[in-house]
Design a protein that fits this description.
Helix content is 10%, strand content 9%. The two termini are 23 Å apart. The radius of gyration is 19 Å and the shape is flat. A two-stranded antiparallel ribbon has the order 1-2. By secondary structure, it is largely without helices or strands. It contains 2 helices and 2 strands, in the order ααββ. The protein has one domain.
Length: 107
């Protein structure tokens, strides 16, 4: 099980505001029918919108990517806000930004 001790003194996930729910009432989130998002959300009509088809047959090896080293620098989250939108959660850090340095990403 993951160690979640770095999140201390958190409160329950806040519920959505009533007006937020009313805005989204007519649109149900899902993986189906994504090609029609542009009809509901005109901003989603761009050329490079998700979902993006990543064709692994066209992928190319880049040895310079191996030089990147990242390492996590965890700070106890005391001044943060955790929200739940029903599909994901967000942790919003209010006083510090997260930085990753020298963390090895296995291939």
């Amino acid at each position: 099980m993951a160690d979640l001790s770095f999140i201390e003194d958190t409160v329950a996930f806040p519920e959505k505001e009533e007006d937020e729910e009313e805005e989204e009432e007519g649109v149900e989130w899902g993986y189906e029918e994504g090609v029609e998002w542009g009809l509901v959300f005109p901003d989603a009509n761009g050329e490079y919108q998700s979902p993006i088809n990543l064709n692994s047959r066209e992928a190319r090896y880049d040895p310079s990517l191996l030089d990147v080293r990242l390492s996590p620098n965890y700070v106890v989250c005391r001044d943060c806000e955790v929200t739940n939108d029903g599909h994901t959660i967000q942790v919003i850090l209010k006083s510090k930004s997260g930085i990753l340095e020298n963390m090895f990403l296995p291939s």
